[in-house]
Design goal:
Elements: E1 2-7, H1 14-25, E2 36-43, E3 50-58, E4 61-69, H2 72-94
Parallel strand pairs: 1-2
Antiparallel strand pairs: 2-3, 3-4
Length: 96
């Protein structure tokens, strides 16, 4: 699975990129045929100013999850948690 990470208006450090690869890479356990995953990191003006948007492309569909948190790591963990459920549901629908 290919994971593309884009950080808007800042440079993400290698530690954050490794964390994203590790966490997002685990979603292949829930749906094997993932084509590509795109992660967009951005800063917002509000107190929970870290925004993470994860877009997962699967055959015939795409899943998008967006979360805000006080750290990028927390937002990534929340996105992956929601994606797990979405991927399991998509897989069940596909193989019925």
């Amino acid at each position: 699975m290919e994971i593309n990470v884009q950080s808007i208006k800042f440079n993400a450090d290698q530690k954050l990129l490794d964390f994203i690869d590790k966490k997002v890479g685990k979603i292949t356990k829930y749906y094997e045929d993932i084509v590509r995953t795109e992660v967009v990191l951005s800063l917002l003006a509000d107190p929970n100013n870290k925004n993470v948007k994860v877009r997962v492309l699967i055959p015939g569909s795409e899943l998008v999850v967006e979360r805000n948190a006080d750290t990028f790591e927390n937002a990534v963990v929340e996105c992956v948690s929601v994606l797990k459920d979405m991927l399991v549901t998509a897989k069940e629908k596909r193989y019925k």
